[in-house]
Design a protein that fits this description.
Layout lengths: L15 H4 L39 E6 L14 H10 L4 E3 L5 E3 L2 E7 L4 E6 L13 H12 L8 H5 L1 E6 L4 E6 L6 H4 L7 H4 L19 E7 L3 E6 L12 E6 L3 H9 L5 E3 L2 H6 L4 H6 E3 L2 E2 L2 E7 L9 H10 L2 H7 L5 E3 L22 H10 L12 E2 L2 E2 L1 E7 L3 H15 L4 E7 L1 H9 L6 E7 L7 H4 L17 H10 L5 H18 L2 E9 L1 E4 L33
Parallel strand pairs: 1-10, 18-19, 18-20
Antiparallel strand pairs: 2-3, 4-5, 5-7, 6-7, 8-9, 9-10, 11-22, 12-22, 13-21, 14-20, 14-21, 15-21, 16-17
Length: 561
């Protein structure tokens, strides 16, 4: 699904590169955050498979810190779920390697009437796993399901913009909008669900969430809770059966253990942390058996405040916390330089990125002055500020297994102690973290990451209408001017106007500090060398995953076809 969603790790690799594209021009340019094409650090080994016909077979093992929570993609906002779901379903459109929209399940599509009408013709012969044909009725059913209040989808807003959806015949449908909608094209990169399976079911309770049926390149073979999810190549996928027979997501909620498993050959793909990338993956074993890649991720990491918490309702407290944090120190100490400080929700170098704003600079004296202005004093002599007898203390919540976020929280804890704020840190397993804490607003502050989508429309995360249980505006930030700007920016086709509107959006967020934007990390994936067909492009390395393959001589697993 081409949507913004929460990341369990700084950059979860499978399919995320395609969903949240990174861009650049050369290996040298990768040092420049505005030019960040995926690159690899070494040439292919001699046994590269070049000149061979792509072979079928073998298995690929991904490491995942977070376990999927639900394989109905319209009900969840976590990356672990979306990564698996994107293997199972198809959508009318998708991005190609150059980040241009192209037909996928659609045979053709058009935009008419100034972008207010979109017409699609689906390919004939696309089959669901049970052999039924995918049709325009499935698209109409999916649309109705998304906008149904009983579904409670955090992605409903995109589809509520449709004034009318009409099925013209078995394969053709059209969507009419009241006015131009900037995200219309990307919203049709969302998965199609099977009407004949889900019609009449309670979408919130259906077993389909754990036993889905799709029409994509892979099918769910098994799900061992807390251990692994296994997919098998679909023999009926309309674009040809994928060459790699099985995809396994091993759930390993600790990156150090994941690294050991990769080194031992029990994982084929993982996202390295900076220490692993820079200092622990050199030498003959790594050079002979793996490719490393490095590019600026389409993810930003933030410290988000629960704005219903009494402390964080005061903008002076939020600003003081932001000024007490040294982002350069976090990038240098936690990321070992493998990232850039952030000030807002857009990717450095993109057209919506503010031309003059800078990340908040650390200013301890100014932070202390703001807290004093807000009424906080060290009345107990213990260095912790209080107001009305209540200490200025809160807990930062983040997900287990993500060492970068835990270390970031530890650095922030130390930096805030210097201005009189007592911070505690708590980690929770990913699925429970999202389900029981983030979605329900049960936190003081969180360290999390959002994907950065190709289109800069951030309505779903920042508009006040999305500040409800299960909504993506889980910090409950509400600003009428920001609402108006977001509404206007998604309703105009003029990119110059959108640029100006999003610049003002970033200025408001910089003033209000509902998040302390921390950094944009580099993605540092490593892939076992036996996998061929990897072609780094503007869309990352995963956009053509169904075309990856392993030469027969290098295959490790004998698969029953």
């Amino acid at each position: 699904m081409k949507k913004i969603f929460l990341t369990a790790v700084v950059m979860m690799l499978p399919w995320l590169a395609a969903l949240n594209p990174s861009a650049a021009r050369s290996a040298t340019a990768a040092e420049d955050p505005s030019q960040d094409m995926p690159m690899e650090d070494a040439p292919h080994i001699a046994s590269s498979g070049k000149g061979e016909s792509p072979a079928y077979g073998d298995r690929i093992l991904f490491g995942s810190i977070g376990e999927a929570s639900n394989l109905i993609p319209y009900l969840t906002s976590d990356s672990a779920s979306h990564e698996v779901a994107d293997m199972l379903y198809v959508a009318p459109l998708r991005y190609n390697k150059d980040l241009q929209p192209e037909p996928w399940a659609a045979e053709s599509w058009s935009m008419e009437e100034g972008g207010r009408l979109m017409r699609f013709t689906l390919r004939k012969g696309i089959l669901w796993e049970d052999g039924r044909e995918l049709t325009a009725e499935d698209v109409a059913f999916t649309y109705k399901l998304i906008i149904d209040p009983a579904t409670g989808s955090p992605y409903a807003e995109d589809f509520l913009r449709i004034k009318e959806l009409r099925v013209l015949d078995r394969y053709t449908f059209e969507a009419r909008y009241e006015q131009f909608f900037a995200r219309a094209v990307s919203s049709w990169m969302s998965p199609i669900l099977p009407k004949h399976i889900l019609e009449g079911q309670n979408i919130r309770e259906t077993p389909f969430a754990r036993k889905p049926l799709g029409a994509g390149p892979y099918r769910l073979k098994s799900w061992e809770p807390g251990s692994r999810i296994t997919l098998t190549a679909s023999p009926t996928y309309f674009d040809g059966k994928p060459h790699i027979s099985e995809v396994v997501y091993r759930i390993i909620p600790d990156s150090a253990t994941m690294f050991m498993e990769t080194r031992a050959g029990r994982l084929d793909v993982m996202d390295l942390n900076p220490l692993q990338y820079l200092r622990q993956t050199s030498g003959p074993l790594w050079e002979e058996q793996f490719h490393k890649y490095r590019y600026l991720a389409s993810v930003y990491v933030f410290l988000g405040f629960n704005l219903e918490h009494p402390f964080f309702k005061d903008v002076r407290v939020r600003r003081a916390i932001s000024m007490a944090i040294n982002r350069d120190e976090i990038v240098k100490g936690v990321l070992l330089g493998q990232g850039v400080p952030a000030f807002g929700p857009f990717k450095p170098g993109s057209w919506a990125y503010h031309p003059t704003l800078k990340p908040v600079a650390q200013n301890v004296a100014a932070a202390r002055a703001l807290l004093a202005e807000a009424g906080f004093r060290d009345t107990g002599g213990d260095g912790v500020l209080t107001k009305d007898g209540r200490p200025l203390a809160f807990t930062i919540l983040t997900n287990q297994g993500n060492e970068q976020r835990i270390l970031t929280a530890t650095v922030i804890q130390s930096q805030l102690r210097a201005v009189g704020i007592d911070v505690r840190i708590r980690t929770v397993e990913w699925a429970a973290f999202i389900r029981e804490f983030v979605n329900k607003g049960r936190f003081d502050a969180v360290i999390l990451g959002w994907t950065i989508t190709q289109d800069p429309d951030i309505f779903q995360v920042w508009h006040s209408s999305q500040a409800h249980d299960g909504g993506l505006n889980f910090t409950h930030y509400k600003n009428p001017e920001l609402d108006r700007l977001l509404e206007e920016a998604r309703s105009t086709p003029d990119q110059a106007v959108r640029t100006r509107l999003y610049a003002r959006v970033q200025e408001i967020l910089a003033d209000d500090q509902p998040y302390c934007f921390l950094f944009v990390p580099y993605a540092l994936p490593v892939v076992q060398r036996r996998f061929m067909g990897i072609k780094p492009a503007l869309a990352g390395i995963m956009y053509n995953f169904d075309k990856w393959w392993v030469p027969k001589a290098l295959q490790r697993y004998e698969m029953v076809e």
